[in-house]
Amino acid sequence: MVSSFCWSCMTRLRPTPRAVLPPPVAAPRAASFHTSTVRYALPAKKKASLDGPPKFREAKSARMKKKKPVEKSRPPSVGERKALRKRIVLSNPNALEVEGMQDLSSENMVDARLRGSVLGLPVPMLTQLRAVEAFKPKQGWSIFRRPGTVVRRETLELGRFIDGISNEGKDKGRSAKKIVTGVRGSGKTVHLLQAMAMAFTKQWVVFTVPEPQDLVIAHTSYAPLSDDTPHLYVQNDATAAMLSRTVTANEQVLKNLHISQQHPALKSSAKAGMTLEELAKLGIQDPAIAWPVFQALWSELTATSPAPGFDKGFKPRPPMLVTVDGLSHWMKNSEYRSADFDPIHAHDLMFVRHFLSLLKPGSEKPALPNGGLLLYATSASNNPTIYSFEVALKQIAARQAGLNASAPEFPQADPYSKADKRVIDAFDSAKPTIAKEGILELQTLGGLTRDEARGFMEYFARSGLLREKINDAWVGEKWSLAGGGVIGELEKLGRRLRVVN
Amino acid sequence: MAWQSPNCIVHAMQSVRRTVQLRSFLHTPISPVSLRTNITPILSQQQRNARGYATEVQTAPEINFDTFSVQPARIIPASPAYFSGSPKFIDHLLNLESVLAKWASLPTVSPGEAPRMAWFKLMQFREFVGEPVPTKKYKNLIKILQRLNRIDPKLMPFEVRDTLKIFLRPGNPYGNKPVPATVDEMGRARGRGKRKTSSAVVHLVEGEGEVMVNGKTIVEVFPRLHDRESVTWPLKCTSRLDKYNVWATVRGGGVTGQAEAITLALARALLVHEPGLQPVMRRAGVITVDARRVERKKPGHVKARKMPTWVKR
Amino acid sequence: MPPRLNLFNARAAVPVLRHPSSNISRPSIVTSIGINRPTSHGLHPGLPSSTRMDKRWNSSASGGDGSERPKGPTEDPLPHVSEEAAEIAKIMNKKCDGTAASPELEQGTPVSEILQRDKEAQKHMPKVMQDQIKSSTGTRSFSTSTRQSQAELHDQGKSVDEQTAAMVANMISQVNQQAEELHPGLKFGPVEPLPKTENFRTRYDSLLEQFTKLLMTDGKLSMAQRNMAFILDHLRTASPPQPNPKRPLLPGPPAPQLPLNPVLYLTLIVDSVAPLLKLRQQKGLVGGGASVQIPVPLALRQRRRTAIRWIIDASDKRRDSHFAQRVAHELVAVAEGRSGVWDKREQQHKLGTASRSNLAGNRR
């Protein structure tokens, strides 16, 4: 009879910790030499009894059991969370109507007496502004009765500029190019919004790119532009979306304008006598031709005179406002890949390339021949750090200050850092040769002044949201807390409650 | 009970010795030595007489009852507290109580205005009296001392003053005060503060409400509103936010720690400019030092106090 | 270079000593300021309150706009008397046709001007003034901008004008002292006594703080505060509650006004569903090891805690994706009497009423 013990094995096995041992197998292995497999098995658990050995540092109470997660019937439906995140509420019926609040109009947008007060956005214009996605979530529109914006110094300058271009005078047909920067919450996007609102009151055509990031994160379709230029890509769906934004927002203006040129790229679909609205809608209906349609629309809007044969019913084109909000996403490689699986630089996307090319001064005619404004804003919250873009912005500021590019103090990229030359070149615009075209400028938005901040806080109080006595000391305190009147921070302070009891 | 420890015997001996001294000092009792000196001349006279006139009988000298007293059968302790465990302490206590009873009617000042006195710490006092003094009893003694100290300094009797002097620590711990900080020639006041593991230095100048932290604006450094409020609280509660400019340098720790370290530093710097704000800021809780720090992890523990779960093997 | 004449001290302190040939260009605004107080600078004993501050330092660079900053006596940008008079005359000419507009014109010409015209008198004039005329050439080595510092003045004031500067400084210190005596240890006037809410540690409403801390998980306070802000914003923007007459909120402002004061709204909601008592399991009251429930009254904070706990627990069953949104919806449901928290409260009270009898055993 074989002994149930193998002594040598036992002595060898004993010091080994149990955890290292192979897990006990239910059935004895076939090739097992020993019959002692059973011994490896964990000893049978003793019955848990209260009389057993005392347990230390173990929760004895049944109450300390973790709460089981509540069973959810089903997860939220697709897109529900995003819709919630992107929802824009422009009105709070609980808030009080502010008495005597003026609406933005062509008269009061140049009125310096209104500085520091809040101007409401006209209600009919809200659909247009929504169409161009001028509002962003988390901007605090939802706690007021109706949307309104503060008139600050920059707003008045903007108003005067837009007014000057629209009216008959020496400024007619001028164009300006600005890159708006500033710290987080300094009101860059709202500045763009104000520009759009003013442009709509002046019957301009407004093109916007509210989310430049969406174009480079490979979320929309892309295709090579043509066989001749395989390294350039068009994004038809994104273009169609932009056309639809533009058409909805500028319907009134586009309806009254007619085609004035031949558009060979569109072949037969563009007929003479078509309105520009109909032209744009071609691209919306068929995204495959969205890009040529956009180009056709652009050339129509930048036309200064009709082509021969299209003289009938030509109207002068209105000035244009082009805004891009969050420029730095366009300054790096996109998430798209070429056929060779190389990353595509954002500047190789036709859409991006078109809007960046507007920054360069035109050779024969200005980038915006009928006058207008390019407002490209950076973002401080959703902002990839791109060294070459920072250098480019510094260069713009230096050029604006009158520094020559060959001057020694002109900011240059560090030769040891891999600066992206395409980015620096994109902003390297020489002084325009055409008189009506402005130089590329850098506009830095800072904080509000104390008076403007006071007007803003009074607006909160008059809406019934703030229960404090608003005096200069109080406003000064908030002004300091907001880092020198940064308007986004002021808004947070205004909606914050402090109950003094 | 008092004899249980050898220490007590020593105490008893000490008190005996002291009693003897006291008695000789107070009553000048008739000691054996002095008795002898009184007696010897008489005896020597007798011896002389005996030599000269051997047959002459003389009467004994009159007994002077004034100088005679009964020799006590045993030594009596001077103080009844001798039979307690800590006689010296109780003597002190009784003495203080009697002094207090005597001068209780004198007008007092509020505790804040009374001069600050450095009484013996408990350990020092035990050494001083050489007896084991219970903590609680010593606290009661301190209470009496403080009550006596509250007597209006102008009317303080010499007796009380001398009595209190016994219980003062040697040296003058509260005497050498730090030089009060002043605004420097550039108009800056400097304050330092700590909280958690952060330490901050604030330079405060008069200005118009700009706050810079580590060379950046306050919004950049503290994105959370709560922290920004914390930082400016000393100026806010005194409504001086638009009257000073703050330049803060803060190192170490996290966001909350940094913010509240600046609060403390700022409050201290503001005190340099305006010492009169102290009560307000005390009430606002900004010059109260929060000395809590993270408890260290100990060997054998998982965290500072958590122990690993007990397993049988 | 030896210290030159300190024009700043001299000009402001003693107007008579001013040199007319100084060529400081003056903005016209300054003149208009001067008109308001033609004689009251310099030696006037009762310095205006603004000059009291001048000894202090100001770090802000508001050099561009001089009117914002309180002016020191030595940097008062008043022009010279005669220039001023000329300016005033120019302004006043339109109105009163050349009549003397200010006391200076009536009182005659300053000594310094006379001396300059009269060469004979110059020889006999005080040494102080002689020095001044000698040393005042047209150019100066220092900036013409106004000085901010008293200290700097002391450093430079090694010339004859030192005395005058010292006198001015003396007066300032006097005024400062007076202010000190009025409010010892204060620079900007007294502070009104602080309400309790202004304490650094208890800056929020007590219920708000309790609610926030109960929303907190894993010690993440700032996250909890963000959730709390969302909840309050929701209460502010959601339509006012339609109260259920069976389950009314505590008396307060009428329902349509509640959203404008969300903290009060929240307090009313929580306090309305807060139970008055809790049930404690007590062993050994009746013997035999059986436990009985006895009702125990709760303090305010405990009541609120229980209510908040119930609300948060009830919100877990909701289907909104965000935690804060779930809680916010639950709160509105409580306000409208739709929430299960009300049932919980009623149940608790019913049990408490029933177990009142167990209290007798406790009273031995």
UniProtKB/TrEMBL annotation, chain A:
Residues 70-81 have a biased composition (Basic and acidic residues). GO terms for cellular component: mitochondrial small ribosomal subunit. Keywords: Mitochondrion, Ribonucleoprotein, Ribosomal protein, Transit peptide. Residues 48-81 are annotated as: Disordered. One of its GO terms (molecular function) is structural constituent of ribosome. The keyword Mitochondrion applies. It is found in: Mitochondrion. InterPro entries: Ribosomal_mS29. Transmembrane segments: none annotated. It comes from the Eukaryota. Belongs to the mitochondrion-specific ribosomal protein mS29 family. PANTHER family: MITOCHONDRIAL 28S RIBOSOMAL PROTEIN S29, SMALL RIBOSOMAL SUBUNIT PROTEIN MS29. This is Small ribosomal subunit protein mS29. It comes from Aspergillus coremiiformis.
TrEMBL record, chain B:
It holds the Pfam family Ribosomal_S9. Keywords: Ribonucleoprotein, Ribosomal protein. InterPro entries: Ribosomal_Su5_D2-typ_SF, Ribosomal_uS9, Ribosomal_uS9_bac/plastid, Ribosomal_uS9_CS, Ribsml_uS5_D2-typ_fold_subgr. One of its GO terms (molecular function) is RNA binding. One of its GO terms (cellular component) is mitochondrial small ribosomal subunit. NCBIfam families: PRK00132.1. Belongs to the universal ribosomal protein uS9 family. This is Small ribosomal subunit protein uS9m. The lineage of its organism: Eukaryota, Fungi, Dikarya, Ascomycota, Pezizomycotina.
From TrEMBL, chain C:
It is found in: Mitochondrion. Residues 354-364 have a biased composition (Polar residues). Residues 135-150 have a biased composition (Low complexity). One of its GO terms (cellular component) is mitochondrion. Residues 66-79 have a biased composition (Basic and acidic residues). Gene3D superfamilies: Ribosomal protein S7 domain (1.10.455.10). Keywords: Mitochondrion, Ribonucleoprotein, Ribosomal protein. It comes from the Eukaryota. Residues 32-79, 126-160, 342-364 are annotated as: Disordered. Residues 202-356 form the Small ribosomal subunit protein uS7 domain. GO terms for biological process: translation. PANTHER family: RIBOSOMAL PROTEIN S7 (PTHR11205). Belongs to the universal ribosomal protein uS7 family. Component of the mitochondrial ribosome (mitoribosome), a dedicated translation machinery responsible for the synthesis of mitochondrial genome-encoded proteins, including at least some of the essential transmembrane subunits of the mitochondrial respiratory chain. The mitoribosomes are attached to the mitochondrial inner membrane and translation products are cotranslationally integrated into the membrane. This is Small ribosomal subunit protein uS7m.
